[in-house]
Amino acid sequence: MQLRIHFRLSHLYRFCFVLVIIALLTLIVTAQEGKHHMTELRFRAAVNRYYQGDFDNSIRQLETLIETYPQQEEIRFNLVHLLREAGRFPEALEHLAYLKEINPEEEKYHQAFLSTLYLAGRAEEVLKYGQDNEEDLFWKGLAAYDLHDYEQAAAYLTASLERKDFNPLANYFLGLISLEKKDFPTARAYLVKALTQDPNLMVANYDLARAELGRQDYQAAYKRLKMAEAAAPRNQKIKTELKNLLSAHPYLLEQEQKEEEQGRIIAAAPTVTPATPGGTTIRIGLAEKVGQIFTKTSSPFRLKTIAGTELLSGAAQTILKFTFSPAKKINIYDGQDQLVASSDSALILSYQDPGATTLLFNMEYGRGYYWAGRENRAYRGEIHFLPSADGFTVVNQLSIEEYLYAVVPSEMPSSWPAAALEAQAIAARTYAISHLGTYKQRGFDLLSSVASQAYNGVKNETASVREAVNATRGQILTYEGKPISAYYSANSGGYTDLPPVTWKFYPPYLQAVPDPKLNAHDGFPAPATLAAWVKERLPSFSANPKYSARSAYRWQVIVPRTEIEDRLRASADIGEITGLITLGRQKSGRVEQVLIRGTKGNYLVKGDNIRSTLGGLRSNLFVVTPKMGKDGLPDYFFFTGAGFGHGVGLDQSGAAGMAAEGWTARQILEHYYPGTTITRLY
User: pLDDT category, 539, cuts 50, 70, 90?
Assistant: First the structure.
């Protein structure tokens, strides 16, 4: 009996011991889980600070976490990305060396280490590392270029392109190498290819002009320098080169003027298919502060004052020159340069023919961006000339439906699927209706540029566009019975977003919406995650190669420090730029503010001004790092980004990709403007 009791007690003791061990293990696991959870919470808090614009404190929090948990690779790697942006390369390299040591097989650590060495200006060390892949060969090629070893640089970059032929920057640097060798035809070929792959690599325009000068093709050099000047209007180097070229070869300007004169004679103002009468009238500002403009009429015309007094009438294809005189009058000259009328009041050029257009010569567009230029454009409706203190304003007045015939193909290729064109027509009509009177004090409703909606005249009108506009005639998007602000952009990069903070406008129908083929972000993407996301060409409707240029969905450009300084000089003098710090991001990762640090002070740029100030970037969805020079200042900045435009509302590339796979216009609009209704106004 005692033995049996002893056995039972021993069994009970063992059982209790096991329970104690299990309890202890549970407590340990629970403690570890709690510790891990607390670490994750602290990490997310640091990431949130980064998105809220508290850049320095975000770095400090990550550094504190690393001190406590040194083996947390994810935290350390995210810290590296912020240190790189801040230009704190020695610290970033220390962390990367540690990551490579504890996890030598992780490719992303190796790639970050190699690129950081190059960005830090340590080119000699870059050449000691690297493998036989396109990424490593690219960085080694740039490092060899920095060391003026042009043969080796060309070998690395060529090998990189053999493995991956789409690399605008590799082609650009091969062009620079050929310029150094004075092999101007080869330089031209590489630079043309770089700009073909990414027209927004604007730094290549100037170097392409250098190649043309080396080939002694002065006319080609002049045209390229003018393109470069239009895209970078404050670049002093380009202005000086243009001045020197014209001084040495004055015939270039004379030839250009003769060509423009001959062009006015040869060009014919077209007639177009009339629109169905009716609908709201809209006034579009085509140009302001104009001193002189040439026009040509497609049909018999009348020119009268705003009060109705007829000043002039004439036949089709009549050339008229409008000039602004020191007496603040508008003078009108005929094709033989004879003064035929004059007025100090507003003028209206009109037609009885509903298919008539007015051809306006040498219209400027896109100044400060890569698509900048001049061209002749023809417009339906009436043309108004409004005198002001420093020139006159040219306004196009027509019906909204006529306006849309030109807006839709200006915003979206007319060859795209019908459902996409219809969605664009409804969005553009809605935008026009909801923004009528925006520029009333300047004499019109909307601008003809992307600041409102791109409106390039009748040149791209097609039957398919007119069908899309007619099929949706009078239809707009409404929310709770009111027209919405139907913003849209060329390419969202796979993720639309809320309006920028500078708009101070947050309607419920403008949300951060992922492409239907992509997952929504789980909270704010950590800096390293965001950097990988904007670099990877993720499959999506927005990425469809038929409807999205490869360099619009994902892009990488370099912008010289001096170019940003030139653009900033009109607003502030902060000396030489020492760094760019992003302050605040939206859920998609789009930057809200950038702090530009300089030797004489700092300057904060916000919202839509970020793209124009930082060199004409495609979008605010980017990550940026400086590339340090020997003088301790950045030579230039590397931007890696996604998308084209502000990213709010409809994604035009995404809409086309969706339409190609059977989505209707209504379904497309419901995706990009949730909660809205299509309503017919007339």
Answer: very high
Structure tokens at 274: 């009339």
Question: Bridge-partner residues for 636, per DSSP?
Answer: 560, 627
User: How far apart are alpha carbons 279 and 590 in whole angstroms?
Assistant: 38
Segment 404-434, tens digit of pLDDT: 999 999 999 999 999 999 999 999 999 999 9
CB-based contact 430:408 (threshold 8 Å)? no
Amino acid letter for position 22: I
Which residue type sits at 254?
Answer: E
* Mean pLDDT, the chain, integer: 94
Please report, for residues 143, 604, 611, the alpha-carbon distance to residue 568 in angstroms, rounded to integers and kept in the order given: 29, 11, 12
Sign of CA dihedral 539, 543, 546, 549: negative
Tell me the CB-side half-sphere exposure of residue 532, using CA atoms within 13 A: 12
What digits encode the pLDDT tens for the residues 114-152?
999 999 999 999 999 878 899 999 999 999 999 999 999
Contacts of 189 by beta carbon, 8 Å cutoff, 6+ apart: 175
Chain-centroid distance of CA 50 in Å reads 23
What confidence category does residue 206 fall into, taking pLDDT thresholds of 50, 70 and 90? very high
Could you tell me if 562 and 576 are in contact, meaning their C-beta atoms sit under 8 angstroms apart? no
- The region, left, alpha or beta by phi > 0 then psi within -120 to 50, assigned to residue 645 is left
| Mean pLDDT confidence for 344-362 | 97
The average pLDDT across 22-49 equals 70
- Please tell me the total number of residues recorded for the chain in this structure: 682
Residue 24, pLDDT > 80, answer no
Strands 488-489 and 650-651: parallel
For the purposes of burial, counting CB atoms within 10 Å of the CB of 439, is it exposed (0-12), middle (13-18) or buried (19 or more)?
Answer: buried
Superfamily of domain 2-107: Tetratricopeptide repeat domain (1.25.40.10)
Which residues of the chain form CATH 1.25.40.10? 2-107
Query: Cα separations (Å) of 200 from 81, 141, 169, 205, 234?
Result: 25, 22, 11, 10, 17
Residues 67, 71, 77: CA angle, nearest 5 degrees: 85
The percent of residues above 70 in pLDDT, for the chain, comes to: 95
CA distance 609 to 116: 28
CA 414, 418, 419, 422 torsion-angle sign: positive
Distance (Å, whole) CA 556 – CA 545: 18
Tell me the C-alpha distance between 250 and 213, whole Å.
15
Q: In 3-state terms, what secondary structure has residue 346?
A: coil
Digit-coded pLDDT (tens) for 639-657: 999 999 999 999 999 999 9
The C-alpha atoms of residue 491 and residue 664 are separated, in whole angstroms, by: 19
Q: What is the spatial distance between Cα 625 and Cα 617, in angstroms, rounded to a whole number?
A: 14
Q: 481 Cβ partners below 8 Å, 6+ apart?
A: 679
DSSP codes joined into one string, 259-283: HHHHHHHH------PPPPS-S-EEE
What pLDDT sits at residue 3? 45
CA–CA dist 55, 582 (Å, integer): 8
The predicted structure's pLDDT at residue 38: 76
Q: Are 496 and 648 in contact (CB under 8 A)?
A: yes
Q: CB of 78 within 8 A of CB of 528?
A: yes
Question: What pLDDT was estimated at residue 7?
Answer: 47
Residue 326: CB atoms within 10 A of its CB come to: 5
Structure tokens at 500: 């920028």
The neighbouring-strand residues paired with 495 are 514
The residue among 71, 17, 72, 23 whose CA lies nearest residue 43 is 72
DSSP string, 547-605: TS-HHHHEEEEEEEHHHHHHHHTTT----SEEEEEE--B-TT--B-EEEEEETTEEEEE
Structure tokens at 647: 């990213």
